[in-house]
């Protein structure tokens, strides 16, 4: 059965494993030439085009690998035989239904875990100094500034991708058993897996031990606001103010302006339009207000009790969330596997 499973799946497995091996080789080559960590590490890294290219290729590889495994390895694994009717030949021999499915799924699962773990942990090793720089507070106006705890970087590193891969494979096998057609099973697998990946950070991960803090709105921590000043320098609207949390590398979940009573407001009093760092044009408001008006606006906001409530996942919870998410997806994998064997024994003819 092992030999037969390999013969049936070797083309798909070899192509993906070859691509992963190439990415790991490039990670190893570029990783030895990365700059030594210091206070300017991030600025030095972003000037290295080869290193950035490898980083993005490997990150996208880990992000897409579970979906590829589920869609192209898992869904056709049994659906192909059920669609062609060749499963009856195996069942008429000495191989039981349970052993038939266990061997086919087990071999592919082992290869999938080794492939995903190799690429994910290889990328995690490569990003060690990058993560250290971001968690130390280094900034850069580009995609490399995103901390590893925030999507989509979270899904591309650590041990959680192993759970994603096993879940995607189990989902593909289950869809193939139920639908018994290769193409529909592949479409269902891809759609459901993508939906779960989108919903997981929104409905689950973001609510596991999130932290909130109230921050005073100041010129040096304000990062954005939509505002408009009309003719005669008269403020007309202000809304969606954003403030930076003093938590480098954190994943910001909510950034709300609240009044003295703690009620959140997206639309602010018009005078907030002057709460822009004086003579700075980074918020889309031209040259900015007079420094005295700017200082008076921030002072008024503090005096009237306006604060910013920031909800976030601190960078220190990264490995805890990785372990929790791995456990969740392993549980989902177990449930799908149990359902697949039940379906195989009781509903499949």
UniProtKB/TrEMBL annotation:
Keywords: Membrane, Transmembrane, Transmembrane helix. Coiled coil: none annotated. The keyword Transmembrane applies. The chain crosses the membrane at residues 12-34, 54-79, 100-126, 158-179, 186-204, 326-344. It comes from the Bacteria. This is Transporter. It comes from Solirubrobacter ginsenosidimutans.
